[in-house]
Every structure is written in structure tokens, then in C-alpha cells.
Design a protein that fits this description.
Helix content: 10-25%
Radius of gyration: 14 Å
Largest sheet: 6 strands, mixed
CATH topology: 60s Ribosomal Protein L30, Chain: A
Number of strands: 8
Order of helices and strands: EEEEEHEHEE
Number of domains: 1
CATH superfamily: RutC-like
């Protein structure tokens, strides 16, 4: 089974991909950037504000799939500047206060729409 997950409570895909796919007991959520789903615009502010919006987008997609941030087993964080790691991590920790998922964080040259942060995740479906 392979189910496409889509919600209006997270930004619409800006290319040929799905917000998430549920398959074999997992939910694979595409990388989310700090777009406010209400107006499809990048949120104002720096890495803290952008990280919060990204995590809220992930949360909305997982909720639509019947899961939650508590069931996330893996994330990948893409940062425009590794010097902003602490600012990102301070917000990230609020969303994963205990038993945080495994994670990789990498610095990248550029992200879609020139945002500062993008995060994807894999979560348990049940």
C-alpha cells in the first residue's frame, strides 16, 4: 500500500512531489520550508521563526496522516548557515522535548525560495 497524504494546513507542494507518502507502516514527509499555509508566503524573521513554521508544517502533515511529532523516528535538517545551528536547535528542542528522533543536520549552499531552513522526517504511521 502507498497512500498520498495532503492537507491544506501545510504549504502546497511547489513541484512534482507529495507532501507525504504513507507506506509499510511509515510516513515519509517531504522537506518542509517556512511557508505559511494561510497565504503561501515565507514567514518573516530569522532561523527561529522559520524553524517554528517548518515544524508546524510537519506537524500538520503528520496529523493529517494520523500520526504526530511524537512518532517521528528520523529527521534531516538542512541549514543555509551552520552558524545558526543553536538558534534552530533551541526551537527544534521545544517540538521534541523527550526521546528526540535520530537526526542529521547539514549546511547547504541554497534552499528553495532562499529560506534559511528545511526539514524532512520519517514517522511511524500507527
Amino acid at each position: 500500500m502507498r497512500d498520498v497524504i495532503s492537507t491544506s494546513h501545510a504549504p502546497a507542494a511547489i513541484g512534482p512531489y507529495s507532501q507525504a507518502i504513507r507506506a509499510n507502516g511509515f510516513i515519509f514527509v517531504s522537506g518542509q520550508i517556512p511557508v505559511d499555509p494561510a497565504n503561501q508566503q515565507i514567514v518573516d524573521g530569522g532561523v527561529p521563526q522559520q524553524t517554528e513554521q517548518v515544524l508546524r508544517n510537519l506537524e500538520a502533515i503528520l496529523r493529517e496522516a494520523g500520526s504526530s511529532l511524537a512518532k517521528v523516528v528520523r529527521t534531516t535538517v538542512f541549514l543555509k548557515d551552520m552558524g545558526e545551528f543553536k538558534a534552530m536547535n533551541d526551537i527544534y528542542e521545544r517540538f521534541f522535548p523527550t526521546a528526540a528522533p535520530s537526526r542529521s543536520t547539514v549546511e547547504v549552499a541554497r534552499l528553495p525560495k532562499d529560506v534559511r531552513v528545511e526539514i524532512d522526517c520519517i514517522a511511524l504511521a500507527e
